[in-house]
Amino acid sequence: MANNLSRRNDWLTDPVFGDMGRRFFDGFLPTQNPIGDRVLKTDIKDTDKAYIAKVDVPGIDKKDIQLNYQDNVLSISVKKDDFTDHEDEEGNLLMSERNYGRMSRSYRIPNVDEGAITAAYDAGVLTVTLPKLTGKPESTHQIDIN
């Protein structure tokens, strides 16, 4: 019986119907926000000398990314403004799927030399290099993006 019940719901995950099911339920889920259900997808590598974080932020301008390292926590915030080009002269909108809004994520990364943190942004990928600490940590350090 349980096997039959699970089969009945398989259509929601089927590639043909999955998008339709997701779109149907999108408006009813209270956790949805204007930027969509995306999160800042991240890879963090631990090397002998540094932690290297790579964060996917496609479609975000460098000026709309903020980085901060405080109390052993790397915080990343991004924003995407609403689009002004998706309506024609009469205000007609046929379809709107592009996301906008704010996202942020924090990562606990201890023992970092705050003064030596660097960041670069290229082709929608933010790379933050956090050299490991060899002395006493500072309390707060603003990070500039190259």
TrEMBL record:
InterPro entries per the UniProt record, alphabetical: A-crystallin/Hsp20_dom, HSP20-like_chaperone, Small_HSP
Pfam families attached to this UniProt entry: HSP20
Superkingdom per UniProt: Bacteria
UniProt domain SHSP: residue ranges: 30-146
Keywords, in A-Z order: Stress response
Record's keyword annotation contains Transcription regulation: no
SUPFAM superfamilies in alphabetical order: HSP20-like chaperones (SSF49764)
PROSITE patterns: SHSP
PANTHER family: HEAT-SHOCK PROTEIN 20 FAMILY MEMBER
Family, as annotated: Belongs to the small heat shock protein (HSP20) family.
Protein name (record): Hsp20 family small heat shock protein
Species the sequence originates in: Lacticaseibacillus saniviri JCM 17471 = DSM 24301
